[in-house]
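thoughts on my protein:
***
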Amino acid sequence: MDAQLTSHEINHYREILQGDDSAQKALTTLEQYDGRFYDSFDELLSQVSGPTKSYDLARLRQAMLKQVREQLCENEHFGTRFQEYSHDLASTALFAQLIVCLEELAAAQEFPFAPAIAAMVVFYLVKIGLNIFCEYTETSVKPPTDDPLSRRIPHD
């Protein structure tokens, strides 16, 4: 099963992250695509990069996720922040810190992306778990699932 947010989860995040415009934009896009991450991610990418062919979006998504994976999976600072947020999912401040941390890591690699995309990535990571994201290889046909046992982070 592809990872996706339920309407209940979208509404929950919408309520607790009311003041976060990036999160709200990501949630609106997720809502438009029935919570499906890949379709929503591609929509946000097309808004940022302009009109492209669907296969170009898929390649761009794969490249971005590969870069994010390379940066996040060995970053203890992000892992610590992620663990803190996973224990307090109602914390707007911790969510914002994850977005900022993600944006800084991407910018350091000259691969910056919009705050709404960073928010989408954080929602995705919370849904599937950081370990699954880090262990998932891009050669697999299927994206990771939303297995609750995958929510552990490295160094647990």
Summary: The chain has one domain: 7-142. Residues 54-72 form the longest helix (19 residues).
